[in-house]
Write a structure and sequence with these properties.
Layout (H helix, E strand, L loop, with lengths): L1 H17 L8 H8 L4 H12 L3 H13 L3 H9 L9
């Protein structure tokens, strides 16, 4: 029963972390709102369940939401057109 409750809490936190409307809510507050009293316990449980830290999960989820990823940003920055010298 406690495992099921923990899974529900983690799922609630995961949904909040991926929500762009809540991107300004600190991770430790997301943990508290999901029912975790201690941030380190939440972080370990989240990493165990989803394979990455809550902060990294949020970053990836929000980047996917905007359709941007780090590689695309780097590629587009390096291929910008520059004016020809003297032109």
């Amino acid at each position: 029963m406690s495992g099921w409750i923990r899974q529900l809490r983690l799922e609630r936190a995961r949904e909040q972390l991926a929500d762009p409307a809540r991107s300004d809510v600190p991770v430790h507050l997301v943990a508290v709102r999901a029912g975790f009293e201690h941030h380190p316990v939440f972080t370990r449980a989240f990493r165990s369940a989803y394979g990455m830290s809550p902060r990294d999960y949020r970053r990836r989820a929000l980047l996917q939401e905007t359709g941007t990823d780090r590689q695309t940003t780097v590629d587009s920055a390096s291929t910008r057109r520059r004016p020809l010298p003297g032109g």
